[in-house]
Amino acid sequence: MGSCFCVKGDAEDKAIIGNSEExxxxxxxxFREGKYEDAIAKYSKAIKINSSVSVYFSNRGLCYYKLxxxxxxxxxxxxxxxxxxxxxxxxxLCIKSKVAQSLNFSSESLNQxxxxxxxxxxxxxxxxxxxxxxxxEYIKNLKTKILELKPIIxxxxxxxxxxNYYKPILPKNIYEKVNKFMVKSSKxxxxxxxxxxxxxxxxxxxxxxxxxxxxxxxxNLIQLNKLQDPLNRKSFSQTAIYYNKSVKSAIxxxxxxxxxxxxxxxxxxxxx
Length: 272
Description:
There is one protein chain. By secondary structure, the chain is mostly helical. It folds into three domains: 2-101, Tetratricopeptide repeat domain (Serine Threonine Protein Phosphatase 5, Tetratricopeptide repeat, Alpha Horseshoe), CATH 1.25.40.10; 103-185; 186-272, Herpes Virus-1 (2-Layer Sandwich). The protein has twelve helices and three strands; from the N terminus they run H-H-H-H-H-H-H-H-H-E-E-H-E-H-H. The chain has helices at residues 2-32, 36-49, 54-66, 70-83, 88-102, 108-124, 133-166, 172-183, 187-190, 215-223, 245-257, 259-262; strands at 204-207, 212-214, 241-243. A hairpin with a 4-residue loop joins strand 1 and strand 2 (212-214). It starts with a helix and ends in a 10-residue tail after the last helix.
């Protein structure tokens, strides 16, 4: 009887694991379709059945991050990390969530900088008759200084976040590795990210107005019949959209040489 009981217990355990994995796979399918709420529901069912699997939490946390629910994504990332100290995606999810919460317009220094940029952009729209040549040059120089200052403040802000939130809790070797890539200047990365999705380009295309975007975002604009560049508001032609091979090559080089950065891209973070 004892052996029969064990066999029954093993069968039940396998059924439980199978059910939770089935929900995870269904969640992954919804994630690929961009249906993050549906994916969250599936991952939650998997967690309810088996709450000891780290990747269920990190996958669900990524969905929350996509929905900009950074408090939830942080909690799931931390839960994933506690369950599996080798789940670096859980660590990165925690950090990205905390940085996203902190690098917003509630930060006084960044808020002031962005207000200044908006103000200078407004000044540039004033009629020529209002501005003398010297005043125009003065405004241009001030705006340049503001734009140069912004990444420095953002970099220092990221550094403070790392030191305040993560240095006390992360093992030294992990902290140093993560800090190296979180605190560095973001300019190289920004050029490899779509300005609309804020993610690494997957299929970059350049449009006739001169800017490069993720192809799916341009397709969305065309479907909505909004043929204006989101950044410079110039009209673009839907027959003059070209694959940006140079940007794609740069991304491949960058992610090959800096795999830690690549692992933080939202496009590749799911565990299957």
